[in-house]
Design brief:
The structure is a homodimer of 269-residue chains. Chain A is 23% helix and 27% strand. Chain A has 269 residues and is α/β, with parallel strands linked by helices. The first copy, chain A, has a single domain, classed as Ribonuclease Z/Hydroxyacylglutathione hydrolase-like (Metallo-beta-lactamase, Chain A, 4-Layer Sandwich). In chain A, strand 7 and strand 8 form a beta hairpin. In chain A, helix 7 packs across helix 8. Chain A is globular, with a radius of gyration of 18 Å. Chain A binds chain B through residues 13-17, 20, 38-40, 42-43, 46-47, 49, 63-66, 69-70, 72-73, 76-77, 80-81, 94, 97-98, 101-102, 105-107, 145, and chain B through 13-17, 20, 38-40, 42-43, 46-47, 49, 63-66, 69-70, 72-73, 76-77, 80-81, 94, 97-98, 101-102, 105-107, 145.
Chain lengths: 269, 269
């Protein structure tokens, strides 16, 4: 009954020699959810032995290139692999237009599988999927274009407490989300900058490691994962140190790392 | 006075765990030419320590996704790096439309540098660039959509023989090119299939390793590099064996390998 989040990358708009664009795969009891799809996502999936065919749902936080430029290639590869299962895409308005352009541009008559778009609109916490193993909710973040965070709540399992994962990128610190994701077991939150560059963070509507840690603390999260690091920093260890001052149970979501959320049994008292 | 060709990948339409999409960087005496730009090209360039800023000219053989899906991200990264030098793009008709769509879709007002398109049209061998260190020629290949091969001829250097490199992908074996690239020092030629699948090669207008070797032999090439391998083959050593039966000086252009064309001095007889 695994619940794991695997990092495919931790870079922001500019990749580095080590870091791919930020994207993650969430495995909830054998159902796979892809979170964002920047350039190279399909390459990283293959390197990590995650089958493209296993991905059923793709959640796109926003339409900046570093979160979507891998989609045309991913879809093309799924087609070449003769996929037949539907692919569900959840994204702010506009994604369908981009993929329609590609489809027309490629001269491809038809994909081997249906692509089903779910446009994310509205304020507050909205359920967008009732899956077999989880319910998924979207909520607004605070960035330069419409951006959604996602909350995954495991469906009940006998004798164990349902687990939850939240995914928040890109965003300035947004205190109202702490209510929506309150008590989340695993929180991925962007930390594009260090506190020394808090003015850049404010200017570009991103967060610092310290701000991400404060959100985790205020939300009562179990564990915090940081990613989406600006390429201006030569190494990422300072993000960890800065966040742990506020929220000790923090890790860096660097490529290839997998984080498990263990089952917690309900005591029969 | 180096002349080198570096492989960024050797996969065809579907990447594998080891292999990126086929793309190469040609360095002619310090001037850098990018040949094709599939998804992940900018990631591979960084991994190989090739500065994005060094790329002046990009040559696109044809508009199939595995040769162009890396362009939007490459251009976006160049912009974020505050590039000012023009970027020259040589491609069959249609590329500008794709990049214009992206530019509009991204909401970006203007790039930090000019992109200059050179549309490749016409039959036979056509000079498309008179560069500082080389002249570049395009010629038609035989594929399912308009596709160009490229020939790079080094400009004369005192006391040494000008060197040349040809780049031919994707294409069915096309005997007429042997005249245009006659005597080329280094020939990259696609070998999507092995001879055992020659019917698939014919169906999809690709070449086998054996056919590529025959082209190299007929053209009097110095060395043959093979790439663009179909993901159906678990390993690529069979391509080498098959080609070497016809053309012994063959190598596999797998990711990260760099091939030098040494200077040959003109004897003062």
């Amino acid at each position: 009954m695994p619940l794991t989040l695997t990092s495919l990358g931790c870079a922001s708009a500019l990749p580095t020699k080590e870091n791919y664009f930020t994207a993650h795969v969430l495995n909830i009891r054998g159902r796979f959810f892809l979170l964002d799809c920047g350039e190279g996502t399909q390459l990283r999936l293959r390197q990590l032995d995650i089958s493209l065919g296993s991905i059923e749902h793709v959640f796109i936080t926003h339409l900046h290139g570093d979160h979507i430029y891998g989609l045309p290639g991913l879809i093309s590869s799924m087609h070449l692999l003769d996929r037949t299962a539907p692919l569900y895409l959840y994204a702010p308005k506009g994604l369908e237009k981009m993929l329609s352009f590609y489809s027309e541009f490629s001269g491809r008559q038809e994909l081997s599988f249906p692509v089903i778009y779910r446009e994310i609109t509205g304020a507050g916490l909205i359920q967008i999927l009732e899956g077999e193993t989880a319910r998924v909710y979207a909520f607004p973040l605070n960035h330069s274009i419409p951006t959604s965070g996602f909350l995954f709540r495991e469906k009940s399992v006998r004798k164990s407490k349902p687990r939850s994962v939240a995914y928040c990128t890109d965003t300035a610190p947004s205190p109202e989300i702490t209510e929506w994701i309150g008590g989340v077991d695993l929180l991925f939150h962007e930390a594009t900058f260090l506190e020394q560059d808090v003015r850049s963070a404010a200017q570009y509507l991103h967060s610092t490691a310290r701000q991400a840690a404060q959100i985790a603390l205020d939300a009562g999260a179990g564990k915090l994962l940081l990613g989406h690091f600006s390429s201006r920093y030569k190494e990422t260890s300072a993000f960890l140190a800065e966040a742990r001052e506020i929220f000790p149970n923090t890790e860096l979501s660097t490529e290839g790392r997998t984080f498990s959320v263990p089952r917690r049994f309900i005591s029969a008292t």
